[in-house]
Amino acid sequence: MIITKTPYRISFFGGGTDYPDWYQEHGGAVLATTIDKYCYISCRVLPQFFEHKHRIVYSNIENINSIDEIKHPAVRNILKWKKISQGLEIHHDGDLPARSGLGSSSSFTVGLLQALDALDGCMQSKYELAETAIHIEQDLIKENVGSQDQVSAAFGGLNKIDFLKNDSFSVSPVILKKNRKKELESHLILFFTGVTRIASNIAEAQINNLKNKKEELFRMKEMVDEAIHILINEQDPIEEFGSLLHQNWKYKQTLSDKITTPKINEIYENALSAGAIGGKILGAGGGGFILFFAKPEKHKIIKKRLNNLVHVPFNFEESGSQVVLYQPNGF
User: 112, 198, 199, 211: least buried by Cβ within 10 Å?
Assistant: First the structure.
């Protein structure tokens, strides 16, 4: 039995510049962090006592005999790519809803890849793990997804991720003093809008519009370094990070008419009127989780104003995807 634990992520700045159609021509960069909410994948060799060869358990249960029969696209493509011949039982559990803007699909892909590697008695580097997950999602499943979620899930931590024109990437940890990091964490407040959506469908509209949004995307990329400068220079008020987040949200809304909705706009305006300095819908948009930046003393007022939404407390995490149980011979 193998169990992996892979974090979800929050992307602050640079989203949109991590699509290959953009960074292969212009380069891209994001600032993102992983949080202490996780995707858990358990995997074991299935004993040969059942009518089915594979058992896949997620929001559905699939008992099947051929990999080609698997309906879950990530599981099917990963098992085919790995050339799995033995019967497997795979279970997925998550701390938060899927399709909600926290990179859950990529956390699943990274977590399953690492579980199957561990089952084989081998481990890829964090870079290789992210690179493989990007290949699975973009080239095999052919999802309209960027490349940041896979990198964050594999590496963990608060990072600047640069995407280069040659399709490679580099990860630069943003090192903050403990008190500055806590100050940033204490100003963030996360809510679930109650709406899940298929990010690939929303991202497709953004990708198709990239050439028309060069000015906005270049500016959003610049904000990555501006945000890092604010964080590492403690003489800069942390509130400047929130103001920059608000500017970023204004730009993000222009990338596609699918990013925001009247409901999301109402939530955002209610939070601002209750004391939030800035915020953004996470992921591709259209629903899922929404993040706000506000002074800690304003959080109670904001939660009261948004009492119809689910508030999700969180902290940053630094480990990335990891194997938490390794018993290769166990049933």
Answer: 211
Ranges of CATH 3.30.70.890 domains, the chain:
178-315
Q: Which two tokens stand for residue 120?
A: 């084989």
Asked whether the whole model's pTM tops 0.90, one would answer yes
- Could you tell me the CA-to-CA distances from 255 to 149, 250, 307 in Å, in that order? 19, 10, 29
pLDDT of residue 198: 61
**Where would I find the beta strands (DSSP E) of the chain?**
2-13, 28-45, 54-57, 61-64, 88-94, 158-163, 169-173, 188-192, 278-281, 289-293, 310-311, 316-317, 322-326
**pLDDT of 35 above 70:** yes
Q: Looking at the chain, which residues constitute the CATH 3.30.230.10 domain(s)?
A: 2-174+317-326
Lowest model confidence (mean pLDDT) among 8-12, 137-141, 211-215, 295-299: 211-215
Length in residues, the chain: 331
Q: Which CATH class is domain 2-174+317-326?
A: alpha beta
d(CA 257, CA 273): 24
* Three-state SS letters, 2-35: EEEEEEEEEEEECCCCCCHHHHHHHCEEEEEEEE
> What is the distance between the alpha carbons of residues 326 and 73, in angstroms, rounded to a whole number?
26
Sorted by sequence, the CB contacts under 8 Å of residue 35 that are 6+ apart come out as 7, 8, 9, 10, 102, 314, 315, 316, 317
CA pair distance 276, 286, nearest whole angstrom: 21
Does CATH place domain 178-315 in 3.30.70.890?
Answer: yes
**What is the C-alpha to C-alpha distance for residues 88 and 44, in angstroms, rounded to an integer?**
6
Position 265 confidence tier, pLDDT thresholds 50, 70, 90: very high
Q: What is the largest CA-CA distance in the chain?
A: 66
